């Protein structure tokens, strides 16, 4: 379980998080919604402790992560997988070496063990023969799949997705959404998913939270967005042209 307790964050004159309190429960996919600049990605960076709150607390299993030593922080981050917007692959490394990178950095494994783990991860994202390719040879959807394979190679308990379907066509976006669900069901991962893609949101969410100007406007089932009496929540839903999962092909 990860918990944010009255987290504030300001950059200059811009208040990005304004006392946000949230609990991310084990095994649950939570979709984080809101317009650009409302603090969604900043929230994820606080979970990873890339950013520190100006005030407030981030807890992981009841422990304040700001109090972690360097070694404790490293161990904590091993429990997190992070899929970045652009997949963040190393262009000079092959697909195999990109996926193997966390293993080489954090674990002492033989080459045979590394090969077995990478082969398994690439098969899991339906790219069993892509190991020898370079990132420049991949489509956007394939890059996201490789990024996902690299993220799950250390068996994270929590997956953080920052706009996982941005720039992808609807069919490929749907495939990435399916992988998010598959990861949750097969490994019991907790998912924190920042997205503007409402079909993806409706498909993967057990729960949705909506941020606006750093404030938490909504926290509940995603279907409740349409029924909300809050005018800001209702306006967000209407302008997002939300689609139900059954509308996806």
Explain this structure to me?
This protein has 249 residues and is α/β, with parallel strands linked by helices. It has a domain at 89-151. It contains 9 helices and 10 strands. The chain has helices at 40-48, 70-78, 95-106, 111-124, 140-152, 170-187, 198-204, 224-227, 231-239; strands spanning 2-11, 14-24, 29-33, 55-60, 63-64, 80-83, 158-162, 190-194, 207-212, 215-220. The strands form 2 sheets. A 6-stranded mixed beta sheet has the order 6-7-8-3-9-10, sandwiched between helices. A 4-stranded antiparallel beta sheet has the order 2-1-4-5, covered by helices on one side. Helix 4 crosses helix 5 (140-152) and helix 6 (170-187) packs parallel to helix 7 (198-204). The chain starts with a strand and ends in a 10-residue tail after the last helix.
Number of helices: 9
Helix content: 25-40%
Rg over CA atoms, rounded to whole Å, is 18 Å
Give a count of the beta strands, DSSP E runs of length 2 or more.
10
Which band does the percent of strand residues land in? Answer: 15-25%
Q: Provide the residue-averaged pLDDT.
A: 90
N-to-C terminal Cα separation, in Å?
A: 34 Å
Topology overview:
Layout: E1 2-11, E2 14-24, E3 29-33, H1 40-48, E4 55-60, E5 63-64, H2 70-78, E6 80-83, H3 95-106, H4 111-124, H5 140-152, E7 158-162, H6 170-187, E8 190-194, H7 198-204, E9 207-212, E10 215-220, H8 224-227, H9 231-239
Parallel strand pairs: 3-8, 3-9, 6-7, 7-8
Antiparallel strand pairs: 1-2, 1-4, 4-5, 9-10
Which characteristics define this entry?
249 residues, alpha/beta, single chain
